[in-house]
Amino acid sequence: MMWLTLIYSCISGAALLYALYRWVIPTAVQYHGGLALIWHDVIVERMLDTLTQSTRPQRLLNAVQKNATRGDPRSVVKAIDDFCRHKEWAMNVGDEKGCILDSVVSEINPAAVLELGTYCGYSTVRIARLLPPHAKLITLEFNPDFAAIARQVIAWAGLEEKVQLVEGASGDWIPKMKEQFGITTFDLVFLDHWKDRYLPDTKLMEECGLLRKGSVLLADNVICPGTPDYLEYIRSSPRYESRYFKSHLEYTKVEDGLEKSVFKG
């Protein structure tokens, strides 16, 4: 009888822990940005890294290779969204804000795009699949491990010929854009890297002459985690016409949004 009680207690305890991990805590942090980021991006990621002896980007890539059709960008985007909503949160722009990104890309129909912050290539695929023929997308990623995964995701989507993935710091590469890649100016810049780099990199692009009249800056996560110095600059500068698109932090109910800023010259 004692053994049965012990087994029952262990099973009940395990069931409770699983319920807390799978449903209770994720639901509780859905509306709080700080708690959501700590839970998903620190606690859960480190726990799963230890248990699986793999990294989150590797697990995301596995989901793409298992569930997406090779050469089909839409299925790659869907596979990543399904993974992030139902398996494991990841810091992509996400499906909700991704629709805003899609609409901006389609509206501009850019010939030259710069993405700052590739991560695993989710937004790269979203952008590249909508570009006109012969358009160029340069995406910068500081972390070589993320870049290695992103290359495989982009290749699985069949978009490697449209995308130039560059490893290194944005502050080092932005001044080299014209010389290294033959870029005159960018039609669209998508900012989704370190938040404290949004403002200095914007000023650096201005100084390097990479923005023309009509160039669009689209910045993610301007509310959560937030980029207050960038927003203050971009909204108060007479050189930009700026608009905020309200949305939510990827795969949560926390307010976040995209800031679209048109360079006036």
TrEMBL record:
Query: Any note on cofactor binding?
Result: Binds 1 Mg(2+) ion per subunit.
The protein's superkingdom reads: Eukaryota
Residues reported in the UniProt entry to bind S-adenosyl-L-methionine: 93, 123, 141, 192
Q: For binding Mg(2+), which residues are annotated in this chain's numbering?
A: 192, 220-221
Which residues of this UniProt protein bind substrate? 195, 221, 250
Give the Gene Ontology MF terms in alphabetical order. catechol O-methyltransferase activity; magnesium ion binding
Q: Name one GO biological process term.
A: catecholamine catabolic process
- Protein EC: 2.1.1.6
Instruction: Please verify whether the record's keywords include Ribonucleoprotein.
Output: no
Name the cofactor(s).
Mg(2+)
Name the chemical reaction catalysed here: a catechol + S-adenosyl-L-methionine = a guaiacol + S-adenosyl-L-homocysteine + H(+)
Enumerate the UniProt keywords alphabetically: Catecholamine metabolism, Magnesium, Metal-binding, Methyltransferase, Neurotransmitter degradation, S-adenosyl-L-methionine, Transferase
Task: Tell me the protein family, please.
Answer: Belongs to the class I-like SAM-binding methyltransferase superfamily. Cation-dependent O-methyltransferase family.
* Biological role: Catalyzes the O-methylation, and thereby the inactivation, of catecholamine neurotransmitters and catechol hormones.
Protein name per Swiss-Prot or TrEMBL: Catechol O-methyltransferase
Q: What is the source species?
A: Seriola lalandi dorsalis
